[in-house]
C-alpha cells in the first residue's frame, strides 16, 4: 500500500477530528488494492486473513466511516465498494464505468458533466449529499477478449 496515500488519509482524518483506526485503514487498503468493486462479505473474508475474529459489524462500521469521509464509493447496483479517486471530498460527483464481465470499476471525473449536474442541482434548489452515476457495459480488455474468441 502506498504510504503517501495512507499519510494523506491520516492527515485528512486528523484535520476533521476523526480517527483512522487500524481496522478502518485495513478495510480501506483492501478496497484500494482490489481493481474490482468489493462486497462487504468479500472484504470480511479478506480481513479474516489478518484478523481471524473479525465479524460483519466490524466491516460495516468501517465502510460507514469510509463512505462518510468520502474515501470510498458504494456501487449501488452491485452493493459493493470502490476507492474514490478524489478521496476526502465528502460531496462530489462521480461517474463509474462498471464492467459486467470482469467486474472492474473505473471512476471518472468530467468537468463538463459536473458543471451540467451542478447547474441542474442549483436550478432546483436541491441539496445533494452524494451523487454517483453508474454505467454498465464491457471494458476494453473484455471486449478484445471477445473478439479473439
UniProtKB/TrEMBL annotation:
Positions that bind Zn(2+): 99, 102, 139, 142
Q: Please state the gene responsible for encoding this protein.
A: zur_2
Q: Where in the cell is it found?
A: Cytoplasm
Protein name per the record: Ferric uptake regulation protein
- Asked if the keyword Iron belongs to this entry, the reply reads yes
Keyword check for Lipid biosynthesis? no
The record's section on Pfam families has: FUR
Leader peptide range in chain numbering: none
Q: Which GO terms describe its molecular function?
A: DNA-binding transcription factor activity; transcription cis-regulatory region binding; zinc ion binding
Query: What keywords were assigned to this record?
Result: Cytoplasm, DNA-binding, Iron, Metal-binding, Repressor, Transcription, Transcription regulation, Zinc
The record's family statement is: Belongs to the Fur family.
Subunit composition? Homodimer.
Transmembrane annotation, as ranges? none
Q: Which InterPro entries match?
A: FUR, Fur_C, WH-like_DNA-bd_sf, WH_DNA-bd_sf
Q: Which co-factor is required?
A: Mn(2+); Fe(2+); Zn(2+)
List cellular component terms (GO): cytosol
Q: Which GO terms describe its biological process?
A: negative regulation of DNA-templated transcription; regulation of secondary metabolite biosynthetic process
What is the originating organism of this protein? Vibrio thalassae
Location, primary (coarse class): cytoplasm
Ligand binding (Fe cation) = 92, 131
Q: Give the cofactor binding note.
A: Binds 1 Mn(2+) or Fe(2+) ion per subunit.
